[in-house]
């Protein structure tokens, strides 16, 4: 263990797709962003695939350094239960190991209770009245008699929801300076609901109105989804590079940083929904990385390289599963070359 252990920053960038997918699906050239990461010392795993296709199973696998099939006997193909899965997100092997090494945990509100580490040592959440209503209150407005208030134009629940998402996203990037200066070694779990919808940012960070991107059934037409996704991606890329400069320059010991999509964008063939951004800042240990490394091996490699761990690398395998049967897995081959 080093004298001053490196801070560990684990960014989950929700639905962030791989460069070849962004090019194929949207004609979006992400090379300037990836080159910016490389210039800062990152390794970009150009052929990386998610291990699973949905956020909760993907991140649970990554944080527990294990395939779900090996993690708990309750994850059977006929099960639709999620309580153990959600518990494994907050009480994971990676978190346990780092806390045992003396790390302080830092986490952020996402708006989705099952994904939040509200029991972290430091939990960032925007002021409760910044936008006036929580997601639950917004849902209440949309599904009860309170809808009359919205129908009469007294309150716009979708605008409030959008502002809540903006507040949470901006809080992440406004907090990088504070976290990087914490005196204790920190493990920051940073789940950003972007470029995933709702689409609340334009390409320069200007507010956009979420309903502008869906139809009367609150579904996303492909063209509107593509526009909203690219808007948020462009803004997110800018904020990420700024954040990396802060974390790298203000850390006494060079930090460990992971930038990882949990799955690819919606409305893509199931194979391509596995194609993710996966980039690592591992000073002194980048030689251990390879183009098709997948998230299940992320913390195995980090514990072995930095902390004297003894985790062998697992085969990199991707599994698709349908809704609601999250654990009914079928393998998706990695054809990237």
How does this model look, in words?
The protein has 337 residues and is α/β, with parallel strands linked by helices. 36% of the residues lie in helices and 11% in strands. The strands form two sheets. A seven-stranded mixed beta sheet has the order 2-7-6-1-5-3-4, with helices on both faces. A two-stranded antiparallel sheet has the order 8-9. Helix 3 packs across helix 5 and helix 7 packs antiparallel against helix 9 (157-174). The two termini are 36 Å apart.
Question: SSE string, helix = H, strand = E?
Answer: EHHEHHHHEEHHHHEHEEHEE
Mean pLDDT: 93
What value does the Rg take, in angstroms? Answer: 20 Å
Major β-sheet strand ordering: 2-7-6-1-5-3-4
**Count the helices. How many?**
12
**Helical fraction:** 25-40%
Beta-strand percentage range? 5-15%
Largest sheet: 7 strands, mixed
Number of strands: 9
What's the topology here?
Layout: E1 8-13, H1 19-26, H2 31-39, E2 43-44, H3 55-64, H4 68-71, H5 83-90, H6 93-100, E3 104-108, E4 122-124, H7 135-143, H8 147-151, H9 157-174, H10 176-180, E5 186-192, H11 222-249, E6 256-260, E7 278-281, H12 298-307, E8 318-320, E9 330-332
Parallel strand pairs: 1-5, 1-6, 3-4, 3-5
Antiparallel strand pairs: 2-7, 6-7, 8-9
